[in-house]
């Protein structure tokens, strides 16, 4: 996807940030969801990389994992995680 240069310019006044946005917009992933069907369903996961503008700069949304979790408690992370089966009661 090629973004309109005027849109990129409106996102940030920082030339480095504009380059980053353009690179993200034109990135072609090595794997797609269709490529991952060979992975067991209970091991599939995804994260969200949410970019937004605040104070004239591009920011990324991060979360802090609960300290009560067994895996990586209290760590800073991208939002997301393992996929869940919506038909299961535990979901």
UniProtKB/TrEMBL annotation:
Gene3D superfamilies (alphabetical): Nucleoside Triphosphate Pyrophosphohydrolase (3.90.79.10)
Gene Ontology MF: a single term: coenzyme A diphosphatase activity
Renumbered residue ranges of the record's region Disordered: 71-91
Superkingdom as given in the UniProt entry: Eukaryota
GO biological process: coenzyme A catabolic process
Protein name: Nudix hydrolase domain-containing protein
Organismal lineage: Eukaryota, Fungi, Dikarya, Basidiomycota, Agaricomycotina
């Amino acid at each position: 996807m090629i973004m309109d240069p005027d849109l990129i310019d409106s996102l940030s006044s920082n030339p480095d940030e504009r380059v980053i946005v353009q690179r993200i917009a034109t990135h072609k992933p090595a794997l797609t969801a269709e490529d991952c069907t060979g992975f067991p369903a209970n091991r599939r996961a995804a994260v969200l990389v949410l970019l937004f503008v605040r104070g004239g700069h591009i920011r990324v949304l991060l979360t802090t994992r609960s300290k009560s979790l067994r895996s990586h408690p209290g760590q800073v992370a991208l939002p997301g995680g393992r996929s869940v089966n919506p038909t299961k009661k535990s979901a």
